[in-house]
Amino acid sequence: MKHDITFTINGESVHLTVLSHQTLLEVIRNDLGLTGPKYGCSTGECGACSVLLDGEVVNSCLVLAPEADGAEIMTVEGLSEDDELHPLQKSFIDHHGVQCGYCAPGMLISAKALLSRTSRPHEEEIREALVGNLCRCGAYADIIKSIQVASRARR
Amino acid sequence: MVMRKTHVIGKPFPLVEAQKKLTGVSCYAGDERFGPELLHARILFSERGHARFRLRGVEAARKQEGVAALLTGRDLHTRLGAVIEDRELLAVDEVKYAGQPLAVVAAESTEAAMQALAMIQIEYERLPGVYDIESALAPNAPPVHPHMASYRGFDQVQAEPERNLAHQVAFQRGDVEKALASAAFVLDHTYTAAPLQHAPMETHGGVAQRQGKGGLIMWMHTQAPFLQREVIARALHMDPKDLRIITQCVGGSFGSKVFVSVEGLLAAIAREVDNRPVRLHLTREEEFRAVFMTPAMRARVTMGLDDQGHIVAIRAIYDWNVGASVDAFLMEMQRIALAGAGPYAIPNADIQVNAIYTHLLPAAPMRGLSIAQVHWAVEQHVDELAEMAGVSPLALRQRNLVKGGDQLFPNFVMHANGLESCVLETARAIDWQPDHQREASGAVASGKGLAMGWSPILVSPHCKSRAIIQCDGENLCTVIVDGVDVGQGYYAFITQLISFELNFPIEWITVQPTDTGNYDSDWRAIYNNLLWSTGRALLQATAELKRQILSYVSEMWEEPMTNLDIVEGEVISYATKRRLSVLTLLQEGTGEGAPPVFRAAGVYEPEVKAESLDGALQSFATTGYAAEVAVNLETGDLTVLQLAGAADVGHAINPEGVKAQLKGGIIQGVSQTLLEEMRFKDGAPVTIDFMSYPIATTADMPQQIHPIVVEIPQSTGPYGARDLSNHVLVGASAAIGNAVYRATGVRIRELPITPQRIYDALQTQAKTVEGNC
Amino acid sequence: MTRHAFISMETVFLKSFQYIRPESLEEAGRFLAGDAPVKLLGGGNTLLLRIQSGEEEPAILLDVKHLPGFKDVRYHHNQGLKLGAAVNLQHLVMGLEIRRHYALLHQTAQKLASPQVRNRATIGGTLAWASPVSELAAPMLCYDAVCHVWSSRGLREIPLSEFYLGDFQTALAGDEIITHVHLPAFPNRTYGVYRRQTVRHDGRRMIAAAAVLAYRRQQALTHWRIAVLGVDDRPKRIPEAEAALEGAPTEEEVDRALHIVQEQIHPVDADYARADYRRASLNVLLRQAILDVIQQLQSMRS
After folding, report:
1. What is the pLDDT of residue C1?
2. ipTM above 0.95, yes or no
3. What local confidence, expressed as pLDDT, does residue B52 receive?
4. What is the structure's pLDDT at C3?
5. Are residues A144 and A100 both part of a single domain?
C-alpha cells in the first residue's frame, strides 16, 4: 500500500511516496540519501538509527515511514549549520567522543535531545539520556565528557 | 595554522576521520551509493547444528523474478582459510555448524533475494554433534573434520583430527614436576570463560563488482584487506592481482573483520553477475548467528610457591572450543602459549594450548581477549596462592613479576617495561590496601582487587609494512599505508608522525583509505601491530622525502643541502636565511616547467629470528588493573564502583587517544566480565540480539574510571612507542574477580560473573559455615 | 512458502502489510470486524519486532495513536488521572501532574528502557503487551488503574488487577481497543517504592522487581499495595499480603506478608536466573521496599 507523505527533515520539506512497511530509517537512508542514521540492530536496542521526531529522540528503525507524515525530523546532518559544526560535534572531536564512530550520529542526536530540555545536565542525567545508545568501543566516558563540555560552552 | 614541531608528538590529537563520522557523511561500507544498478545479496544459513542436508527448490528459486544469480555448494565447492582451509565457502551435503552458509543469492531487491531464499526448503537429517570441549574429547566422539589431513595447510598444524584436536602449541622450561614436589604451597584450580561475540555496531558486509572478465573490486570495512584478498582469491581460484579491496571506515571490528567470514560469498556471487555492483549487509541476527564467536576457554592451572614467596612452577593447560574452524585462532594460540604463565619469571613452566574442534561457529580471537581470559585464570590463581601463603597479593606479584633482562624464552630477553608501575599506579588510584578485607554496610559489601597483565606482540613472518608519501601541488601531502583505522587512531598517528618529521602543518596531510590496488599482488601487510610497523616504514619514507625536497631546493638555490631544513612548512637556509614555503614550491617549482612531485616509499620487514614459537616475539604489552566492587550479599547484585586500567605504551604519541583506548578497554572489560555470554541450543546460537546478548550500557559503567598511561620507551618502536589497543583490557576481568572475592569471600572461577553465580556461591558458603558451626 | 525467521531483515519486513490511520473508533472497529488479520499499532517497539521475525503476520496495522482523545492527559484532584491510551511513557517521566500526584509512576517510568523507547511506547500498547516483566504494570497495579475499553459492542472497564490472564494474555477481546487508563485520586500522604534487580543495569534481563505503595491516615498505614514482576506468568498484586500489612505493621507482620507472597508466586527459570533465585531476590527487594515505605510514611508529619 502506497502513502503520499510530507515531512520536514533538517528544515527542508520533502514529499515522498512510501510503502506501508518501509521504515523511516530506510526512507532516510535510501530515498533521501542521508547516511547519518545507521542500521545497527533493527530491534530498538542500539540507538545507531536515532533521529529526532518532533523534537524527541526515537529509533528510526522502529518508526514506519507513513507514521512520519506531517512530522518534523532531524538527523545528525541537520546539526551543523552552514558548514559550521555544532558545539556538540566540535566537542566530540576535541574530547575523543568518537572511536569507530558508528554510534556517534545516534549519540549526538540523544545529546541534542537532552540539551534541548536540560541546558546544563549532570553526569548522571547524561548517562540516563544515553542508555539507549550502545557503543561497543566503550567510549562512553569520553562521550559523556564531550557532552558536558559542549553544554558548558553553549552558555 | 602551522603546528610547531614540538606540538605534535605526545600532544592531544583528534581522530582523523572524526569529522566525517560525526556529520554523517558517507564513509562506511553500507553508506556507499551505487544507483539503480545495485543488486542485493542474501545468504541462506543453516539453522541446525551437525546434520546431513538437502536443498529442494533451488532451481525454482534461481528462476524467481528479480534473481540475478544464485549459488549453492553444488555450484561452487571450495574451501577457505588463511593457513588451514578448514572451512567451506558453501556447504555440500553436510552441515558442520548452525550458521554455515548453504546458498547465496543476488537479486534486484532485498525482498526478491529473500523471497528466492524462502523458496528453498532445507531437509535436515540430524547427525550426532559435539558442542563443548568435554563431549568433543570424549572417546568415540564424532570427529568434526575426519578428512582434515586432506586440507591445504594441514602440514602447518599439530592436529589429531580423529579426536578433535585441531591444533596444539606447547611450551616448557625447567622441571615442573620436581619443582611442584618440593614447593611449600601447591594450588590447583580450573577456570572457564564463556564464548563471546565481537558484536561491532556495524554488521558485516560490503559491495563487490566484477571488472571485465576476471577482475573484482570489493569495497569493504575489513581490518586486514591484504589477508582477505589472499584468502578470497585462493578460494575462488583467482589471481590475487585481479582482486582489489578498497577499505571504508570500519564501524568496529575487535577482531571480527580480520579473517574472512561472509566476504568470500559476496565475492563469489558478484562474479556471477554481469559487472553490476552487489551489496551485502548482514542483519544483526545474522551477525550473531553466522559470523565468528570467540572460543570458550577451560584452563587447568597448577602453581607452586616456595616458603620464600617465589613462584617456582606453573603447569597450565588451556583448552579452547574453536568451533568448526581453527584457522583464525592459530596465531592467537602462539600468543597464549607465550603469555600462559602470566607476567612472572617462573623458572619451571609447562604450558599447553589446545584447540578443540566442535560443531559450533568458527572461532576468531577478539581484542586481546584470549590473553585476557588467560589472565582471568592466572591472576585469580596468584591471589589465591598469596592468601594460602599468608602474603599480600601485591607483594607476591612484586616479588615474582618479570623484569627487563629476564630471559624466559630462548630467543627473547625481556625488555625494560612498566609492569610494576602499572600495578602500583592502579592500586594507588583506587587506594588499594593490603590489609583491608571488606567493608560492609547493611547487605552490601565492597572490596578491592588487583591484577597485572602481559600480552605478547608478535611480528607476522612473511609480512611487511609499507608507506608511500607523495607531495604535489594539487593534493599537498598524501599518504598510502597498508593498515586500516578501526577507530584506534591509526590515521591520527600517521598524520602526527609526518607532520613531525617533515615539519608540515597537519592540514596538508591526507591519509588515503587503504586499497590493495596500491600494492603488488603478493603483498602481505601487518595488521596487528600497526603503530610499530607502519611507524618504522613511515620514518624511512619521510627521511627520503625530506631529502628529495631539500635536494630540489638545493639545486634551485645553488646552495649545499646541508644548509637547508624544513621548518614549519618552509624550506629555509640557515646560511643565507632564504625561505620558501613548501606550498609555493609544490605549486610553482622553479617557475619553469612542471612543478615537482615528490614521492617516497618506506618498507618495514620484520626479522623473524627463528622458526620457533618465540622467534616472532617482538615485545610484550604490559598492563595493570585495579577494581572496587560492591556486592549485595543477599541478592548477588554487583556494581563496579571503580576500575583503574594502566598500560605501558612506551611513549604516548597521542596521550588523550591512549587514554580513550584505555577507557574503552575498561568499559569493554566490564561488559565481558559481567554481562556477555553466547549461548547455544543444540549447537545453534540462542543469543541473537542485544536483548539476549547484552553489552554494557552507560548504566553499567563504573562510577569512576581511572586510565593510567605508563611510558617506558621501547627501543625499537617509533619514538619509543609500543602498540596498545589490542591488549588494553588484559587483566580487567581478574581484577574484578579478585575484588569480588575480597568483598564476599567467594571465588568465582567462571566467566561471566553473573548475579546468579555470585548468589549460588554465597549460598554454598553459607551452608559450609553452618555446617562448621 | 517456507519461512526462514533467520533471514529477518535490515529494513525490510518479510511480509508486507497495510498501514492505516483510522479517524475514529468506529472506523477502527470496522477493520477489526473484518476478515483480514489486524494489529493495533502503538509505539511499535514490540509489534514491529514480532512482524520482522515472523511471529506476527498482520495484513493491516491500525495506527491508533491519532484517534480523538488518545493523547489526552487530565488530572482532577477528586477524580484522579485519565491517561489516553496513546500517551507515551516519556510523559510519565516529564508530566508535572504525574510527578506531583503519582510519584511512584514517575519513579518507575524514569527507569523504563531508554528515551528512544519511552518516546514511542504508548501506555495502551505497553499494558496490552502483557509481559510478565512489564515494569509499567507495577505502579499501575499499585494505583488501582482501570483500563477503559471500546468495541463496537460498547464500552467496558477492566481493572488492571483483572486485566492480566497470564503468559502474555489479557482480558481484551480481539475487537477491543483500550481508549484510556484511569487512576483514582490518592491522598497527599501516599508513598510508593519500586525496586528491581536486573542483570544489565539499564533494566534488561530482569531477575525480579516489586512495587509497594501505601498511605498514611492519622497513625495508620493503610491501603497497602504490593505488585510483583518476573516471578509469575503475569504482573500481579498479592492482596492477602497487602492485608497483612494493614495498620502499622510490625516486623512479624512484614515477615508474614513476605511469606504470603512467597506462597503465591510461581517463578520460572530464565537462562540468566533460576526460579529459586528469582524468588529469593524478590524477597529481598520486597522487604526493602516495604521497610522503605513504612519509614517514609512514619517520618511524615501528621
Report:
1. 25
2. yes
3. 98
4. 28
5. yes
pLDDT at B16: 76
Write the residue in C17, C52, C116 that is nearest to A59 by C-beta.
Answer: C116
Cα–Cα distance, C10 to A26 (Å, whole number): 9
Say if B117 is an interface residue toward chain C (CB within 8 Å). yes
Torsion of CA B151, B155, B156, B158, to 10 degrees: 100
Q: pLDDT over 90 for what percent of chain C?
A: 91
Across the interface, which of C3, C205, C274 has its CB nearest the CB of B118? C3
Confidence (pLDDT) at C301: 73
Chain B interface includes A80 (CB < 8 A): yes
Among A21, A48, A78, the domain boundary falls at A78
- Which spans in chain A are helix H? 24-26, 87-94, 104-117, 123-129, 140-153
Assess A19–C contact: CB distance below 8 Å, yes or no. Answer: yes
Same domain? For A16 and A45 the reply is: yes
Domain ends where: A78, A112, A131? A78
Q: Residue B300 has which C-alpha cell?
A: 587447568
Residues A13 and A73 in one domain: yes
Distance in Å, alpha carbon of C224 to nearest chain A alpha carbon? 31
Q: How far is CA B299 from CA A131, A139, B35, B341, B414, in A?
A: 35, 31, 52, 12, 25
Q: Searching chain A, which residue's CA lies closest to the CA of residue C66?
A: A67
Pick from A55, A15, A57: which is nearest to A37 by CA? A57
Residue located via cell numbers 615442573: B176
> How many C-beta atoms surround the C-beta of residue B160 within 10 A?
13
CATH number for the domain that contains residue A105: 1.10.150.120
DSSP B737-751: HHHHHHHHS----EE
- What is the pLDDT at residue C2? 29
- How far off is chain A from B94, nearest CA to CA, in Å? 30
Both A49 and A28 in one domain: the answer is yes
Q: Are strands B465-472 and B598-604 parallel, antiparallel or unpaired?
A: antiparallel
The pLDDT of residue B771 is 62
- Preferred mutation among B16, B22, B688 to probe A, highest tally of A CBs within 10 A: B22
Question: Three-state SS string across B525-557, please?
Answer: ECCCCHHHHHHHHHHHHHHHHHHHHHHHHHHHH
CA distance A141 to B4: 30
Q: Do C285 and B635 touch (CB under 8 A)?
A: yes
Q: What is the mean pLDDT of chain C?
A: 94
More confident residue, C147 or C13: C147
Nearest residue on chain B to C203, alpha-carbon basis? B699
What residues contact residue C250 under an 8 Å CB cut-off, 6+ apart? none
Low-confidence ranges of chain B (pLDDT < 50): 1-5
Residues in chain A, total: 155
All domains in chain C, ordered by first residue = 7-65 (3.30.43.10), 73-183 (3.30.465.10), 190-299 (3.30.390.50)
Question: 3-state DSSP call for residue B81?
Answer: coil
Q: What is the mean pLDDT of residues C213-219?
A: 94
Q: What is the pLDDT of residue C302?
A: 62
Shared-domain flag, residues A93 and A142: yes
Strands ordered across the beta sheet of C190-198: C190-198, C206-217, C220-229, C236-237
Q: Which residue segments constitute the domains of chain B, with CATH numbers given?
A: 5-25+461-604 (3.30.365.10), 34-127+200-253+257-290 (3.90.1170.50), 296-459+611-772 (3.30.365.10)
The residue with greater pLDDT, C13 or A121, is A121
The whole-number average pLDDT for the span C88-95 is 97
Instruction: Output the pLDDT for position B475.
Output: 93
CA separation for the pair C140, C114 (Å, rounded): 19
Q: Of all helices (H) and strands (E), which one includes residue B59?
A: helix B58-63
Do A58 and A32 belong together in one domain? Answer: yes
Range of the domain at A140: 87-153
Residue C11 confidence (pLDDT): 56
The answer on A121 and A53 residing in a single domain is: no
A99 & A121 share domain: yes
